[in-house]
Amino acid sequence: MELTKLGWNAELNQQFAPQHAKGLVPARVAVEDKHFFRVWTTDGELLAQVSGKCIHEARWSNSKLPKVGDWVAVKLVPNEEKAVIQAILPRRTQLSRKMTGHGATEQILATNIDTAFLVTAADMSFDTAVLEQMLVVAHESGARPVVVLNKIDLCEDLAGKLAAVTGVAGGASVLAACALTGRGVKKLSELIKPGHTAVFIGTSGVGKSSLINRLYGEDIQATVEVRTNDAKGRHTTSWREMIFLPQGGVVIDTPGMREFHIWIASEGSKQAFPEVEALSPRCHFRDCTHTKENKCAVLEALAAGTFPRERYDSFLKLQLEIRYLREAEKRAAWQDRKKSARGAHRACRQKD
Ligand SMILES: Nc1nc2c(ncn2[C@@H]2O[C@H](COP(=O)(O)OP(=O)(O)OP(=O)(O)O)[C@@H](O)[C@H]2O)c(=O)[nH]1
Ligand SMILES: [Mg+2]
Ligand SMILES: [Zn+2]
What is the CB < 6 Å shell around ligand 1? Predict the structure, then answer.
């Protein structure tokens, strides 16, 4: 397998020089399953495990373990189709969300991606709130977000749904598609160039795997019909997986997720709400939070009806979440410092 087709380039090659000198070879993580990985090397697919040193270094932070999309340095196990992952190369982009049900921990969904396809369905499950969350997460990742309105065959009011999607999409482009007939799939395919990596995210049943099958040209990912009463999916795809397209380029299929709560966001929130960004230079205070200040251009636009109330509510929710995560991050950093101070104290006492 030619690594350049998977996105390997001169810059990565340069970064890899020290690893190369140690006799390690480059590989890309295609599947992650707890402590086992499938990686792609020039010689094909290998089963890989992480070195003890890597696990030790990652003991406080899961994000230091390999993720789907990562470029890694592996040591080949002679005479076996196995490898040991020794190091992760710096990530160019990474798509993260806050893990659900846990205080505030980062879950990395995919790395080194160029395009994030945010899939929604034009059927009964149509929901712009999840799309707004996905947009922030995608903008924050560094990848280019593209909104895909799939299942347009199941919708009577396509113009209305497209308008609703465009209303929240900010600057992201919007594509309409139908994975069943293949309508719109060509446009999608044109956005995945050889060497590029695209990830598909969205709630269960919106048709992520179906679109990928269409792009691939045959059914390689399992798909299952949605429930008839509410069009919700059944969580068919159960792990993140990288797929190499015959025409070049790589796509990552992901399991359907109900929520895309942001991990720490700064740029992402600005880009997801370009309306607020455009208005805020006209606010009286430079650090205006657009919540209670006098002479706030955002609040004025809200009162005048030129900035929709639902968009403002989404904006507020996002700001609250960002504040919560910042606090949680500060707390975690403080606890880390306390832990290492205690460790140092113990080490000193042992020396005495
Ligand atoms: N009518 C119609 N059905 C579609 C379309 N795209 C997908 N489906 C159907 O929707 C169901 C769910 O599609 P999947 O591709 O499995 O959805 P998914 O997003 O991968 O779902 P998870 O893997 O659970 O996250 C399948 O029965 C598909 O055949 C479409 O454009 N139109
Ligand atoms: Mg799927
Ligand atoms: Zn303001």
Answer: 150-151, 153-154, 178-180, 202, 204-210, 223-226, 233-237, 255-256
- Which one is the CATH code of 273-332: 1.10.40.50, 3.40.50.720, 2.40.10.10, 2.60.120.10? 1.10.40.50
Phi, psi of 109 (to 5 degrees): -90, -35
Mean per-residue pLDDT for 57-65? 81
Residue 21: CB atoms within 10 A of its CB come to 8
pLDDT tens-digit map of 247-288: 889 999 999 988 888 777 667 778 889 999 999 999 999 889
For ligand 1, atom 26, the nearest C-alpha belongs to 225
Domain locations in the chain as residue ranges: 3-88, 94-253, 273-332
Q: Which of 33-47, 53-67, 256-270 has the lowest mean pLDDT?
A: 256-270
Radius of gyration of the chain, Cα coordinates, nearest whole angstrom? 22
Q: What's the half-sphere exposure (Cβ side, CA atoms, 13 Å) at 43?
A: 13
Residue 116, φ and ψ in degrees, nearest 5: -110, 115
Indicate which residue's Cα is closest to atom 2 of ligand 1. 151
What is the atom index within ligand 1 of the atom nearest the CA of 150? 31
Output the pTM of the full model: 0.87
Task: Kindly report the CATH number that applies to the domain delimited by 94-253.
Answer: 3.40.50.300
Of ligand 1's listed atoms, the one at least distance from the Cα of 225 is: 27
Which atom, in ligand 1's list, is nearest to the CA of 206? Answer: 19
Residue 347 has pLDDT above 60, yes or no: no
- Ligand sitting nearest the alpha carbon of 232: 1
For 3-88, CATH gives 2.40.50.140
